[in-house]
Write a structure and sequence with these properties.
This protein is of the alpha+beta class. The protein has one domain. It contains 7 helices and 8 strands. The strands form 2 sheets. Strands 1-2-3-4-5 form a 5-stranded antiparallel sheet, with helices on both faces. β7 and β8 form a beta hairpin. It is elongated.
Length: 297
């Protein structure tokens, strides 16, 4: 349990951008009276400039590495395609496996680049439009709301680990197809008995390998589908009502917000400008005391 000292200039601190927002929906001939009733006070807390530049440089370097990786993989794939004949065979050639691996590396590198660009866009939005926005509703019976963005550099690590998982899933697909590739070797043995024996063993093993490959390929497909939602939510804003259903925790200066039916958000408060950090904690503690909840820090 921690205590927070009341800041003497909370209402006049120039670093907090306080604005009055009026309802824009449901306008009617009596709309002017309605607007007065819906007036809200909003506090915006921006991403610190030093933190913003640090994360942006990391993201830009990561993006450049992914572009280079994709270009190299595509160049290797094109050169490899021209290096062997492409006649039909009843088995998988090892050259085809390496060709598929090179093109898949290019695919995941380009996909990772798209995710990094999406995150950098959200990072810019957090810097210019606010990383945390607290909207206070003075009307009785109406709760306040908080809008947050998760803009920590851990998002870049998440992108890397997604790419890493996809890569090893594809390697697993190739391992499952390895017995099929061995058939190309067994058919060229000199002894007919060895040809029949080794080819039969390779065919039996290939059945088990197919199961392994199908499972790994299924995870790749599901992951690609899930990436659509992940990309949309990456660094996006989430709004929560600060009522009795909301749960707020602060551990190691990481703000965790949970609300029934909503996605949990983790916000690294160290990314805020130093003076914004104290002001946000003061406002959150004030709102939490108002709704008679336990404030845990």
């Amino acid at each position: 349990m921690g205590s927070i000292k009341q800041h003497p200039n909370l209402e006049t601190n120039e670093q907090i951008r306080r604005s009055s927002q009026f309802g824009q929906q449901g306008r009617s001939p009596r709309g002017e009276e309605l607007v007065v009733q819906l007036v809200q006070d909003a506090y915006r807390f921006d991403l610190g400039r030093a933190q913003y530049l640090h994360i942006r440089i990391k993201g830009a370097l990561f993006f450049c590495m992914l572009v280079i990786c994709a270009c190299v993989a595509m160049a290797v794939g094109i050169l490899w395609w021209k290096s062997y004949p492409h006649n039909f065979t009843p088995y998988l050639k090892w050259q085809d496996a390496l060709l598929g691996l090179s093109w898949f590396i290019a695919f995941i590198a380009l996909g990772g680049g798209v995710l990094v660009v999406r995150f950098l866009h959200a990072l810019r939005a957090g810097y210019t439009q606010g990383m945390v926005t607290l909207v206070e509703n003075p009307q009785r019976g109406h709760s306040s709301a908080i809008t947050v963005r998760d803009l920590s550099a851990e998002n870049l690590k998440s992108i890397f680990w997604i790419m890493n998982s996809a890569f090893w899933c594809f390697v697993t697909v190739l391992i499952g197809l390895l017995p099929v590739m061995l058939i190309g070797w067994t058919l060229h043995l000199s002894n007919i008995v060895l040809i029949i024996l080794t080819t039969s063993i390779a065919i039996v093993l290939s059945l088990a390998g197919f199961v392994l490959s199908i499972i790994a390929a299924f995870f790749i497909v599901v992951g690609c589908i899930g990436l659509v939602s992940f990309c949309r939510k990456l660094g996006s804003s989430h709004t929560y009502q600060l009522d009795k259903q909301a749960t707020i925790r602060i551990d190691n200066f990481t703000l965790t917000i949970t609300y029934p039916g909503e996605t949990e958000s983790l916000v690294d408060l160290n990314l805020l400008a130093p003076d914004h950090q104290e002001q946000l904690l003061l406002l959150l503690r004030k709102r939490w005391v108002d709704i008679e909840q336990i404030w845990s820090l």
